[in-house]
Amino acid sequence: MDKTFDFKKLESGLYDSWEKSGVFTPKIETGKQPYTIIMPPPNANASLHIGHALFVTVEDIMVRYHRMKGEPTLWLPGADHAGIATQVSFEKELAKQDKTRFDLGRDEFVKQTFDFTVKNRITMENQLRALGASCDWTRKKFTLDSDVSEAVFTTFKKMYDEGLIYRGERIVNWCPRCATSLSDLEVEHKETEGVLTYIKYPVVGGGEIVVATTRPETMLGDTAVAVNPNDKRYVKLVGQKVLLPLMEREIPIITDIVVDMEFGTGAVKVTPAHDSTDFEIGQRHGLPTISVIGQDLKMTESAGRYAGMKTKEAREKVIADLQTVGLIEKTQPHLHSVGRCQRCDSVVEPIISKQWFVKIASLAKPAIEAVKRGAIKFIPQHFEKLYFNWMENIRDWNISRQLWWGHQIPVWYCQAQQVKSDKLKVISEGGDNFIVSAERPGKCPVCGKCEMCQDTDTLDTWFSSGLWPFTTLGWPKSTEDFKYFYPTTMMETGWDIIFFWVARMIMLGIYCTGKPPFELVYLNGLVRDQEGNKISKSKGNVIDPMMMVEKYGADALRMGLVVGTAAGNDTAMSEDKVRAYRNFANKIWNAARFINLEVSTPKAVKEVELTAEDTAWLKEFDEMIRETTKMMEQYQLGQAAEKLYGYFWHTFCDKHIEAAKPRLKDEQQKETAAAVLDHILKNSLIMLHPFVPFVTEAVWGELYDDQLITAAWPK
RNA sequence: GGGCGGUUAGCUCAGUUGGUAGAGCGUCACAUUGACGUUGUGAAUGUCAGAGGUUCGAAUCCUCUACCGCCCACCA
ipTM for the complex? Predict the structure, then answer.
């Protein structure tokens, strides 16, 4: 054996031999309870970052542990097409060549994006291998695989047929840069310094009512003024009309409970087409919606003489015009939150648009129940509160995106009825005569002749992600895999995607299969830098996991990520820490090297005569096994790792090996000392293996004949 | 407006049935052909944010306060 553990030389060979030996692929053994983790599929648009390395480590530890316990263990890998994220990142690639997606056209764009994801997937899969991920590559999936897509379309159709998906003209979050609608979750609110403008609206028949707004240009689309029903100041005005300035349109003064008497003047202009609260007020009062801003952020025809202007320009002009007629009372600085696109940071515009929605209430109810009755448990448990908090206030989910990259919505329109799209390149087109079908329909059932055209929208990427725990296992077909491995055991992912992903998997899982998709949700935290800062490219504190693997080995990185980390808590990562665990891997190597040199053909501890001290040591070791196993069962991985680390280094190496040195030279004591060392080393290697798989397997190969990865966990 | 989390060694953090405070890095002293210097031995450093309560006993349970951080929301 070399003097140090040469991870660079050994790691990839060790991985290959595991993979080739087929141990990653479980055998279906009826009667045995399987242990299943579906890997959160990394986005196919980039390499793995340190956060991926953390989840890979945690999952691989659990998978190796359960495999060693003799359970049929499946860890199913995959990749996510990551709709908007990938489209935005590939568009950035195109921008480097001064191109936009429109230069390529939809088909070519999709083709090139696909090629882009294929490249990324290959890189990503090799990175997973480098980290030691013992997942079953024979079962790997991609969200755009034909069988997965088919399951997605089938689900869409089922939900439509059962009234859970509807198409509606509603107010949605519109990202002008991405040219698509977004779900509420994809909008990030940021505090922004704005201006509150107080505008006087003349009351028909005399007087005036002052409203305050941060967006004066939207007044062109006002269809009411609202006050709180309990507001004494305006009692006399309610029911009267105001003459909307600039547009010279009469609109009513109404009451609505959402109006805050304390804010501004207590009177609010209502623009149902450009504000979600106003939209709801409009719905309650049957107000018309007048869209004055288009998808391109230009004022529409309905904006009268402001038509064609950009919103910013229109705002200035509206203020100037109001000023001229003396209708601006005052302005004041105002801090408020502005929605921005999660992917590209553009300011999101609420507009009216025809979109597809999931009716969420009936899906949320059993999903809340499942967690309440403990069918699904969260680690750490306090995240259940967060889950309930969101689920109990959940709103319908906009699932259509005006993107090109993703699952195209399986809805087919009769072309005879098709509404011609306008000049906008991205508008979702289609009339009202459509059918929903998982496959391209043969003949148009509406006109009997046309080739139906498919909806141009794609599905929110999280729709397919929500089905992931079972589409990966072959659902909706009743495959052997689905029958055996579903419901899965654990879903391990970041707490930051509880709403995006975990909640949707629970809702759709129960809806589609009748069962919660997993028993346990283990939430890992964010990996931060040494000072506890969030890691980001702009801060320049990115820790590339592959660089760490290159410099210190995968074992060192894994230990560095997992020791001192608790579920749900953020982890501070530093190179120093990784270096320290590189030393630990080397310590393991050298302890084994010593025993390899000094001990040959050791007997079992049962076959030798033990001293009282030996017995005490073995008892202490058994206690360590018991405690560590308990921690593993309770998913206290950081503590288990630390215990093993401390025991192996400071008890086994520093005490036992040191004490054994003179004994091994003594003919009388030699046999016993060797047996005890071998016993503890062997079982320590087994328990350390899930954490540091490479060095333990390498050492095992030097000492024993079989493979460590399938050795039995000690009892 | 509602909710959640944190406050433990110089730094970053563990500490899950309440029982004499732990790790990594850093610091100091000593050891040095011996499995490993990617080492060993020893040492220093903590009123576990503050106050009150429960208890034989609290970093751990309860209440309040302070300061950080985060999430959600229809802040016109």
Answer: 0.91
